DNA sequence: ACCTAACTGTTATCATACTAACAATTGTTA
DNA sequence: TAACAATTGTTAGTATGATAACAGTTAGGT
């Protein structure tokens, strides 16, 4: 494990722990506020659709960084719950566009301020500069990993 | 979504994307180098045991930031693969201590440099100061979240 | 000693992450 | 046009993340 100033720097563990706390807090926030019939990830899809309705599944997967089987399953659930509906695209019959229902829009409107409040909590006592630094460093690490990942790809 | 300098700052999404790249790269590294019969998470247990053998399951769970059911399952798998063995503690019969087998130690020795190489890759072109900053900001966010999480806990 | 609370590992259940493989559709190219 | 490749959504299977509930064990308080 890399050491700096005699401090162990295991980024994987740090990210796992932070992500774990993040998930727990998000779940708790939803439950405490009566949004206990939907998960944080499912809500992410609803919130995305409030920004741009009618995306198709692969677009949703790419934007949210998830894979298509996952999106299929989550959208199945959201459709069963009546929050979204699938609609065939006549110009490309492979595509299923996803739209919010009225119920789905209502749910997103209720949950949006909860997400905002959680974002505010996680950035408490942090300056804008610190937040930007954190985001940029995460992106730098991701870029490094993706480059290395592609290198490995070519090695195979 | 919080905006700084007109840039969207969705830490949850950034962490999810980075963690996803991290997982993919880790998995690929193991497969490319012939360690395809073990997962990154299972390997984490083996590497921990090389630092301190004979930990019991709850200790492993706490150190790695996982829950006990997960550890039970992963250790079941590792035991089936012959990489670890459970041993009852006579002084406290609730406890099962976990030890590396010879096979497990060999596996860990083979995989350790792969993990080190991946750590080096993710920190490429980053100064020690940047790395420390990233770790400290992640910890700060985690602390914020945990405080907020406990607050919610009390509100219930 | 007895009762209760806490701890440890386990099982069951559900949601997510990921891969492989597939059918249907569309795009490309010889 | 015919053959092949790529795209889209789906299904199946495995591993992980997380919670609830349980039996066995230990610790604490009366």
What do these coordinates show?
The structure is a homodimer of 156-residue chains. Chain A is mainly α. Chain A has one domain (38-147): Arc Repressor Mutant, subunit A (Orthogonal Bundle), CATH 1.10.10. Helices cover 67% and strands 9% of the residues of chain A. The first copy, chain A, is built from 6 helices and 4 strands. The first copy, chain A, has helices spanning 11-32, 40-51, 57-64, 68-80, 102-122, 128-155, and strands spanning 3-4, 7-8, 84-88, 96-100. A two-stranded antiparallel sheet of chain A has the order 1-2. A two-stranded antiparallel sheet of chain A has the order 3-4. In chain A, helix 1 crosses helix 5 and helix 2 (40-51) packs across helix 5 (102-122). In chain A, 28% of the residues are buried. Chain A binds a DNA duplex (30 and 30 nucleotides) through residues 20, 23-24, 27, 39, 41-42, 56-58, 66-74, 77, 92-96.
Number of helices of chain A: 6
* Count of folded domains of chain A: 1
Structural class of chain A: mainly alpha
- Going by CATH, the homologous superfamily of chain A would be Winged helix-like DNA-binding domain superfamily/Winged helix DNA-binding domain
Most extensive interface: A-B, 60 and 60 residues
The global form of chain A is globular
Major sheet strand order of chain A: 1-2
Biggest pleated-sheet summary of chain A = 2 strands, antiparallel
Summarize the structure.
The first copy, chain A, is mainly α and 156 residues long.
């Amino acid at each position: 494990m890399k050491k700096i100033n005699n401090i162990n720097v295991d980024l994987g563990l740090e990210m796992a722990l932070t992500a774990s706390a993040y998930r727990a807090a998000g779940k708790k926030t939803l439950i405490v506020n009566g949004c206990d019939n939907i998960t944080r990830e499912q809500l992410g899809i609803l919130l995305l659709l409030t920004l741009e309705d009618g995306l198709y599944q692969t677009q949703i997967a790419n934007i949210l960084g998830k894979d298509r089987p996952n999106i299929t399953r989550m959208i199945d659930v959201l459709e069963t719950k009546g929050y979204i509906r699938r609609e065939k695209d006549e110009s490309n019959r492979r595509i299923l566009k996803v739209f919010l229902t009225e119920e789905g829009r209502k749910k997103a409107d209720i949950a949006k301020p909860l997400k905002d409040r959680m974002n505010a909590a996680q950035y408490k006592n942090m300056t804008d500069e610190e937040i930007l630094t954190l985001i940029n460093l995460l992106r730098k690490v991701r870029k490094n990993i993706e480059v290395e990942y592609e290198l490995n790809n070519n090695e195979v």
